[in-house]
Amino acid sequence: MRRNIKGRKPRKSRSKKKRFGAYICILIAVISLSFIFVYTYLDKQILPIVVAMSQLKIKTIATQSINDAVRKTLEEKQINTDELVTYFYNEKGEIVSCSVDTITINEICADVINKISEEVDKYTDETIPIPSGNLIGSNIFANTGPNIEVEILPFGTATINYDREFRSTGINQINHRVWLNIETTMQVVVPLASEKVTVCQQVTLVDRILSGTVPPNYVNVPESNILDVAPGEFNK
Questions:
Q1: DSSP state letter for 78
Q2: How do residues 180-196 score in pLDDT, each as one tens digit?
Q3: Is the pTM of this model over 0.70?
């Protein structure tokens, strides 16, 4: 009798251990498959939507920062943009050339770079809340549900160069423009991904309609101070 009882106990113990081991294996497999499914769904469906919405928001922030930087620079320097260009006429009153005040434009560009950095730094550690209902793609659940927080990192570069153009706009009329080409890069950080966003914007300094024809040549004085690129960096 004792041998039978003793003989049964090991068999029951081994059977329980096998079942327990099988349960553990199944549980691990289910958890692994669930993780793979969730990760794949986030990576293929949710993440692209979050990144796209974040890019739209970050472009708005970058554009606003550029506009504010230019406005504050012109206000602080009290610059009359009409004075940035001097026109030269012949005895017939026709424009033959013009000179651009590159020294002042260089100063404007340098100040704008600094101002952009200051404006962007205001968004350090700021997050963009995106309602999770927007990720479903349904109008019914738009702007509902818990928010997904997207972090903004003001990291990147800002560059400026200026350009100018004469063009005919009609009979005996020409349009002269001088503008800044501003490019700034910011980085969006979302769960599982990060994305850099580049915003390019033209800011007009001079836009005048003049009588006459396009002059055969025009000069920038002094030549040694022509601005090519004025880089600036912001990193917090």
A1: T
A2: 999 988 877 776 677 78
A3: no
